[in-house]
Amino acid sequence: MSQLHVVLGATGAIGSAVAAELGARGHRVRAVSRGGPGVRADVGTVEGATAACAGADVVYQCAQPPYARWAAEFPAFTRAVLAGVAAAGAKLVMADNLYMYGPVDAPLTEDLPDAATGPKGRVRAEVARMVLGGEVRATLGRASDYYGPGGLNTILGPNVFAAAIAGKTARWVGPLDQPHTVSYLPDIAAGLVTLGERDEADGRAWHLPAAPPVTGREFLRAVWDAAGGTPRSAGLGRGLQRVLGLVNPVVRELGETWYQRDRPFTVDDSAYRAAFGPARVTGVVEGVGATVEWFRGR
Fold first, then answer.
1. Which whole number is the average pLDDT over 282-291?
2. Which residue ranges does the record assign to the NAD-dependent epimerase/dehydratase domain (predicted)?
3. pLDDT at 147
């Protein structure tokens, strides 16, 4: 029998993309979520995580607490998942982000210190240390803001793609002319699955391959080229973010990581490419076109 690859959070954007990539590579897949198709389990509990991970060879951790409750809930959530992975004797691959580095004025590399001072950045650093703490065989794949088919719970989904399809103003969060690395969901999935397949990935974090950085203006231009209609674009500045945050808790949360918006935010993925060879990376025009078609078909 082939190895069993278990995806936690399989109905989310990254989890569903990982499950699809695993299937395309011929792996046996168990898709786990709190609701929806596949196996249902609450992996935020030891019992749920243990049941979800039973028999697994590799577990992909793509589930997480609600964004606003990361600081309060992520450590206990991670301990439950680690217990489930340990009970199965499996390898853990965690879908991670870039919050732990804090403000950086150069391309982001994996050897940067955990310098975040905000609660979300600090807890992401804590969780990463837990995952790599030796309790299980583990690796982390880190990606920037994502977009792609299925990408709803992201600042590039409703604010940009859904708005453009509806003929409304597509809003880029932050200044329009700062370069910013964006990650395409199928590319994230491909990178995570490769980390799951390769033993040399174990024991550290990796920046997943992504296309070269683009400015908000360039990204929005690609969206409108694909969507058609009369382009209507704008940047969401810090002042407006503060005002909207008074009534919108999701927008309010963006203030903690505004340093990812007000300066170049570029990700160096050269370590991954050197270790694992040529990576599949989708150009922005192609990725945006596929994402527009997905949003149009909803």
1. 98
2. 6-201
3. 98
Q: In angstroms, rounded to a whole number, what is the distance separating the alpha carbons of residues 220 and 241?
A: 19
Class of the domain covering 4-144+184-210: alpha beta
Structure pTM?
A: 0.96
Provide the residue ranges of all domains of the chain, joining segments of one domain with +. Answer: 4-144+184-210
The residues, any chain, with a CB within 8 Å of residue 56's CB and separated by 6 or more, are 4, 5, 6, 30, 85, 88, 90
Dihedral of the CA atoms 126, 70, 205, 100 (nearest 10)? -70
User: Contact at 8 Å (CB) between 223 and 296?
Assistant: no
Reported as a single tens digit per residue, the pLDDT across 141-179 is 999 999 999 999 898 999 999 999 999 999 999 999 999
Residue pair 292/165 in contact by the 8 Å Cβ criterion = yes
Sign of the dihedral defined by the CA atoms of residues 204, 205, 209, 211, in that order: negative
| Cα 37–Cα 40–Cα 42 angle in degrees, nearest 5 | 140
CB atoms within 10 A of CB 206: 23
Model confidence at 115, pLDDT cuts 50, 70, 90, reads very high
Distances (CA, A) of 219 to 2, 17, 51, 177, 234: 41, 22, 42, 10, 12
Assign 1 a pLDDT band (cuts: 50, 70, 90): low
Strand (E) or helix (H) holding 275: helix 270-276
- As a whole number, mean pLDDT of residues 41-63 equals 97
